[in-house]
Amino acid sequence: MILTIFLLVHAVLLYFIVTHRTRSKSEPPLDKGSIPWLGHALEFGRDASKFLNRMKQKHGDIFTVRAAGRYVTVLLDPHSGSSACGSHITRPSKKKAMTKKHFAGTNLAALDSTMSRHLEALLKADTPPNQTHWKDQGLFDFSYSVLFKAGYLTLFGEEQNNNRSDPTSVYEEFKKFDGLLSKLAKGTLKSEEKRTAHRVQQRLWELLAPAGLAEDSGSSPWLQGYRRLLQEEGVDEDTQRKALLMQLWATQGNVGPAAFWLLGFLLTNPEALMAVKSEFSRISEMETSETPLIDGPVNTPVFDSALEESLRLTAAPFITREVVQEKTLHMADGQEYLLRKGDRVCLFPFNSPQMDPEIHNEPQKYKYNRFLNEDGSTKRDFYKGGRKLKYYTMPWGAGTNGCVGKQFAINTIRKFVYLVLTNYDLELCDPSAQMPEVDASRYGFGMLQPEGDLLIRYKQRKTC
Predict the structure, then answer these.
(1) How does pLDDT run across 199-234, given as a tens digit for each residue?
(2) Is 280 within 8 Å of 302 (Cβ atoms)?
């Protein structure tokens, strides 16, 4: 009995030592929440945007919160964000350097060409030329399925004589995985969901296992290089398969949703739809089958603005980095704060700068020309507190922490929207339909996803 009490007391003392933390004067405001160890994890996970807005009102543009035993310093000052993720906070990555090489220059052009070919083939297979009746489908399902399959074929390739790697099979399993991803990451899966997640992950690991192993597999040079890098680092086969699943999500989990939001905003904003169609029409008039202009560098300022505005409203990733050594953070207003080694720093650009009313007037409203000047040129001058901002949206990250596949993703979305709007009659099933609400549990996981779908109907346009 005495031994039990002794061990219990020591366990309580150890817990107190491990979890007890006080704020020093040089550190950001500390908010540990009322629940021991868990802190603010539940509220953070339910709706990160609402939670961080509440914390900002309480503490200002920088604060540290406890969530599931971790301490996260959140920075919401758009003037100071670029200084928060330097080399003192994160370590350089060989994988990122390798990936950057494969998504630039002639390598990017080759990927664009392959992606274009797969998009055209998938869309033609979906709606044969002799089909005269309308096809009804959810816009989210339509966009996600086509872009996922095209992206999978472009980057992960077709394994010869291997039906297991059929893109439709991979997509169906991936949808199940993606639907459970936020709960999986937060550790809030129910018993049956855990079993489903385990089965789906096992299946996807099997489907992805051969990808990139052989030069004749049809996989992209990027994937082959990635597999070689893992092997050189001594990563075992099981861990390689898990890494491939994460790469599958990173490369295919955001483009489809991004295209859905853009097409949805265009269909529910006739003026925006007409402006983008008009710009595409001028391009199509100059195209021939031998010179598809949309596949190369092309000036599309209206489309670019419409896409950037859509991303401003729906791209909501956390940009997080580990503090690898104690460092003083210098804020733009002259304040200085000490960052502790082992903590994490988090930017949430969705709240700031993307939804800041001082930076973007009527931030909740979709304005396709928000990023255009009156003369039609790209608008890059946005201000906060009278000072020009370096970053006024950050859907792709920024600086050294930016997405290396950004241009490939933009080119893919533009090609997809171009093909759909120029080759198909596309309309809402209900002309008065509005955009669905976002799934608040997806804040922090890249592109937001909708609660429900937007029903459309489409058919291939008749040509003279």
Answers:
(1) 999 999 988 887 766 665 668 899 999 999 999 999
(2) no
CA distances for 125 relative to 17, 134, 146, angstroms = 62, 15, 11
Q: How many whole angstroms separate alpha carbon 344 and alpha carbon 322?
A: 4
Alpha-helix runs per DSSP H in 138-287: 139-155, 167-186, 191-208, 221-232, 237-252, 255-267, 270-286
Integer Rg of the chain from CA: 24
How far apart are alpha carbons 354 and 81 in whole angstroms?
Answer: 13
403 annotated as belonging to a binding site for a ligand: yes
Question: What CATH number has the domain spanning 94-318+351-460?
Answer: 1.10.630.10
Give dist(CA 444, CA 409) in Å, integer: 19
Residue of 174, 196, 330 whose CA lies nearest to 256: 174
Cα(372)–Cα(283) distance, rounded to whole angstroms?
19
CB 222, CB 103: distance < 8 Å: yes
**pTM of the model as a whole:** 0.91
- CA-to-CA distance for 314 and 398, rounded, in angstroms? 17
The three-class DSSP label of residue 378 is strand
Query: Does 380 show up as a binding residue in the annotation?
Result: no
Please check if 254 is assigned to a binding site: yes
Q: Model confidence over 369-413: pLDDT tens digits?
A: 999 999 999 999 999 999 999 999 999 987 777 889 999 999 999
Cβ atoms of residues 68 and 39 within 8 Å: yes
CA dihedral for 353, 356, 358, 359, sign (positive or negative): positive
